[in-house]
Amino acid sequence: INIILTKDNNSYRSFYNALLHEGYRDLAALLQDGIPPVSSGNRKSSMDGMTSYGQLKTILCEGGVPQRPVVFVTRPKLVDAIKKKLYCLGSDPGWVTVYGMAGCGKTVLTAEALRDPQLLEDYFPGGVHWISVGKQDKAGLLIKLQNLCSRLEHDSTLSQRPPLNIEEAKDRLRLLMLRKYPR
């Protein structure tokens, strides 16, 4: 805690979010009152309005976007193709689906596309929420959906209990997406 307190506000928020999403809700609840407010000054660089590298890293980390692997091969054409699809969404809600064989690099390419500060600033001003679903049994899927609900409701004034089943989780996520996160 002492090390975190010597860092900036983003570090405290990241630590709080990590506790919350890794199953330490009781500890996170103890720290909840001390969470510093997010201001536009914390997210932007004062020089040019662009998101700085450190702030970009924090936004991606808080959203659960995977880090770049140690062995990384750049594939700029494929990354640019994903970025173009994301830019095409504009202000309209929608989806971009990246598909392919297991291990072909879908996750790495998509995460790399999200490392574009201009893309995040223009199209994901509230950050990103990354979930990896893969092949899950119903219990595993419910846990993933509960975590996502918790992440999306973190700033809500009403503390809601986690959804008890997959249908309830789907309904809650649908309403959250329509009302709170339309983009």
UniProtKB/TrEMBL annotation:
InterPro entries: NB-ARC, P-loop_NTPase. GO terms for molecular function: ADP binding. GO terms for cellular component: cytosol. The gene is Apaf1_1. Residues 77-180 form the NB-ARC domain. It holds the Pfam family NB-ARC. This is APAF factor. It comes from the Eukaryota. One of its GO terms (biological process) is apoptotic process.
